[in-house]
Amino acid sequence: MGLPDELRDAVRAYLAGRPGASWQQCARDLGIAGLLVPEEHGGAGCGPAEMAAVAGELGRALSPYPFLQSAVMAVTAARAAGATQLLESLAGGSATATVALPGDGDLRLDGDLLTGEVPYALAGEIVLVHVAGLLVEAAPTRREPYATMDESRPLQRLLFDQTPVRRLGDGRSWTRVRDLGVAALAAEQAGGARRCLEMAVEHAKARRQFGRPIGSFQAIKHKLADLLLLVESATSAAQGAARDEVSAAIAGSYCTEAYLAAAGENIQVHGGIGITWEHPAHRYLKRATSDAQLFGPPQAHRARLAAHVFG
User: Fold this and answer.
1) How far, in Å, are 28, 64, 114, 130, 158 from residue 86 at the CA level?
2) CATH no. for residue 258?
3) 236 to each of 16, 21, 150, 187, 257, how far by Cα in Å?
4) CA distances from 92 to 25, 70, 71, 124 (A)
5) Are residues 128 and 235 both part of a single domain?
6) Phi then psi for 31, rounded to 5 degrees?
7) C-alpha dihedral over 291, 295, 300, 306, to 10 degrees?
8) Same domain, 44 and 148
9) Residues 163 and 48 reside in one and the same domain
10) pTM for the structure as a whole
């Protein structure tokens, strides 16, 4: 058993045993806040395989932890910019951060003053902004939280009005920040899709109609077989997503649609109980739907992929 498998088991056991633990507690107990932080800056010095293992388990459990924006994107941005002090703060989980990429909003940097807005940003205490070829830290003039469909993934609008910034370093490596974010999200989506498949199979074995488990009916068998193919393919795409921009675009497109399909079919297999508030199936559909917009819809990933394939 390699390190990614050990991490996967440890995170799964932790989430099952301590569902109410805070991000700071989880960072202290598991060290996932500093997973991608080099050891000399207080982190674990791990790579994409370990990142995907952790993200998959967080997605499987619909965890609200800010792993995607803080432990992956913010850490990657800080490493690229050489912001070692920020890395050390993020590694211990004492602070969380979110990242605005070029194109995420209408922003203008005049000297050391930032003006504009980011309409949709993941929640984080520290705000890192890629603007004018730089990575800067800026405290928003105003934060406006949204009432989101998926309450486990808070979104907010960030407004800046001549806001002083702290220059952290070069921000031209933002595409790598985006691609690792897409890779982590794809792993979450694959983990969520696998959990939907597991729930559907469990229900198909236990639910009986006409004296037989519904899983014995051909229509359900075919539905579950198709889901298994989707989930396994999504897992493969997610595992290779961190290699380069092309791999990230493939995973961003495929895993998004696979998760949406798995979440929807899970509800269909469950029948009436699948649409009740008490059953968790609707929560996976909500997460799958919100995830589908985070880094752009599947069509946006395919457009980026087409630019590489067709020049």
Assistant:
1) 17, 22, 20, 15, 21
2) 1.20.140.10
3) 25, 30, 26, 9, 14
4) 10, 11, 10, 15
5) no
6) 75, 15
7) -120
8) yes
9) yes
10) 0.96
Containing structural domain, residue 43: 3-172
User: How does strand 106-110 pair with strand 113-122?
Assistant: antiparallel
- What is the average pLDDT value for the chain, to the nearest integer? 96
Q: What are the structure tokens assigned to 201, written together?
A: 């199979």
Q: Which of 172, 197, 219 is the last residue of a domain?
A: 172
Handedness of CA 181, 184, 190, 193 (dihedral sign): negative
Mind listing the pLDDT tens digit for each residue in 294-307? Answer: 999 999 999 999 99
Structure tokens at 108: 């203008």
> Tokens representing 305?
């992929």
pLDDT tens-digit series, residues 87-140: 999 999 999 999 999 999 999 999 999 999 999 999 999 999 999 999 999 999
Angle between helices 245-270 and 298-310 (to 10 degrees): 150
